[in-house]
Amino acid sequence: MRRTLPSRALLATGAGLATAAALTLTGSATAHPTAAGSTTVTPAGHYFKAALSGKATFKAGSVTVTCSASVSEPTSPAGTDTKNQVPPAPGNTNADGPVGGPLSAPTYSNCTVSIPGVTATITTTGDWGVSVRNGSPVAATLTIPTGGFVLRTSGLASCTVTAAPTAEATVTGQWTNGAPSKLSVDGASVPVKVVGGFGCPTTATSSTFTVAYDVTDATDPASQITVTG
């Protein structure tokens, strides 16, 4: 992670989108106020893994896509890649702002749709990011690259829903220190573009999602990834 990426992120994952049905995708982001001041993420230089806690839920009106598996993990724990890495010191501290960096695109699988006869798959690509900022509560910001999240449905409704269709999008969530620490997003809104035929909400411009990840230290499983001032 790099301290110079104010809109990037340090841990997490998730991404927001929609599903297939003749319904409009709507939602509003959840605000998380934070106090100004310094942010320090420890242990400096350690890699982390974010694994789904519970279910990832993507809502479109009364229709829901639920995924039971999602993970973002370091691609190179040996130290040749900065994805999913707490910045080495002194970059793990920012005297007046967030600490963040690149994130491996989270995968989503084992997804079901609340509409009979419809199935869903999710593909993630590109350079994701995440940042955290100390406060009460600790704020977390997930960055989705342009077109970095695509949900496709098939069966009775064949649609393609692309999150962040024209520019990268940021989603606000919350970080909680613990064993393991947790990053959560509750009813956040993400811009989307929907294409498809009958049953596809092609006029929709946003979608909501709720997800929580357990964040563990991949370098030293006995340690915890922690955000302080």
Write the layout of secondary structure elements.
Blueprint: E1 39-42, E2 48-52, E3 56-60, E4 63-72, E5 93-94, E6 99-103, E7 107-113, E8 118-124, E9 128-133, E10 138-144, E11 149-155, E12 159-163, E13 169-176, E14 181-196, E15 206-217, E16 226-228
Antiparallel strand pairs: 1-5, 1-16, 2-4, 2-15, 3-4, 3-15, 4-7, 6-9, 8-11, 9-10, 10-13, 11-12, 12-14, 13-14, 14-15
> What is the strand content?
over 45%
Structural class call reads mainly beta
Order of helices and strands: EEEEEEEEEEEEEEEE
Shape: elongated
Q: In oligomeric terms, what are we looking at?
A: single chain
Q: What characterizes the major β-sheet?
A: 13 strands, antiparallel
Identify low-pLDDT runs: 1-35
Structural account:
By secondary structure, the protein is an all-beta fold. 0% of the residues lie in helices and 48% in strands. The protein contains no helices and 16 strands. The protein has strands at 39-42, 48-52, 56-60, 63-72, 93-94, 99-103, 107-113, 118-124, 128-133, 138-144, 149-155, 159-163, 169-176, 181-196, 206-217, 226-228. The strands form 2 sheets. Strands 2, 3, 4, 6, 7, 8, 9, 10, 11, 12, 13, 14 and 15 form a 13-stranded antiparallel β-sheet that branches. A 3-stranded antiparallel β-sheet has the order 5-1-16, with no helix packed on it. It is elongated. 48% of the residues are buried.
List keywords for this structure.
229 residues, mainly beta, 3-stranded antiparallel β-sheet, 48% strand, disordered N terminus
